[in-house]
Design goal:
single chain; 134 residues; alpha+beta; PH-domain like; four-stranded antiparallel beta sheet; three-stranded antiparallel beta sheet; 7 strands
Length: 134
């Protein structure tokens, strides 16, 4: 990853290095959101939360989720200068807090996730319908 997009200058070096190590060859970051204690990154196929410290679980400081039907990402309200993103995978939930000045970027990330998942669902649903028609 070359975090040369918007907000890349706000990513701490240790989180940037962990993010770079977590990416597959050729995988690029489309959205990068600085959050409190972490960075949230979206690629074409995954959502990643990279913690700034090393005392977090998992020990690598990286949590990742494949974009798919089990993933839900919701943006809460901004209160007292921060808003929350709630990431759910089946029964597991992770919350990330984003400062108000990056909230528009966080909402854009949520919108991009929903769009990608909707397109993937329509493509797979369309393929099933075509097989059933023939």
């Amino acid at each position: 990853m070359d975090p040369s997009g918007p907000n890349s200058d706000l990513v701490p070096d240790n989180a940037g290095n962990r993010l770079q190590a977590a990416l597959d060859d050729g995988e690029g970051v489309t959205h990068l959101i600085p959050a409190i204690g972490c960075v949230v990154a979206l690629t074409q196929k995954r959502l990643l939360v990279v913690r700034e410290g090393s005392a977090f679980r998992p020990k690598t400081g990286v949590r990742e989720w494949e974009l798919g039907p089990s993933l839900t990402v919701r943006a809460g309200l901004v209160r007292h200068g921060t808003g929350s993103l709630v990431i759910r995978w089946d029964r597991d939930a992770t919350s990330v807090f984003v400062r108000a000045e990056h909230w528009d970027d966080a909402q854009a990330l949520v919108g991009a996730i929903r769009t990608r998942m909707r397109v993937a669902e329509e493509e797979s649903g369309g393929a099933r319908t075509k097989r059933g028609d023939g």
